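ESCALATION

Customer reports they have been waiting on this structure for their group meeting. Please prioritize. Original submission:
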Amino acid sequence: MISVIKFVILLVAVTFVPLSALANNYVVDKDKSQLTFSGVHAGNDFDGVFEEWSADIIFDAQDLENSAINATIMPKSAATGNKMYDGTLPQKDWFDVKNHSEITFSSSEIKATEAGLYQAIGTINVKEISKPFTMDFALDSQENGAMKATSEFEINRLDFDIGKKSDPKAEWVSEIIRMKLDVIAAPQGE
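Update from on-call: job pushed to the front of the queue and completed.
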């Protein structure tokens, strides 16, 4: 009998990509993975982390056509350790978490660029604004079939109306926000 969890994973796989004999479902190790962000405010660097996020990963380097990444970030979980920043980020002009509870990325294609280097090409959606997005990432094998994915990329916050009313010319907060992704994931069932 299929458990509820396996059924949900199967349903997600069927909904987003064709099933393949080669592509594996990967489960993220949340204790060893993180999604961080950084920028500049009033001339001072700041760093933060999204504490709540998830990713559905179907991947096989030999079957990229049937590989896919679908990620969801909860913007209300953004934390910098600075009381002012953490109080401002959820507000309407910034993440507007009352009306926009999720940031999503869905790949439409994954391709290899070099040995161990890949691109996930797809769409990012922030505050109901969808834009084409390409994320370069590196993969390294870990113990027991797990993989480590790392990526560094930039988001232009003004493209998604983040802080656009209060700081439209990026005079206080940098227009470019740097993102860093470190993910450890293992094939499901291992």
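Sent to customer with the following note: The two ends are 19 Å apart (CA to CA).
Escalation resolved.
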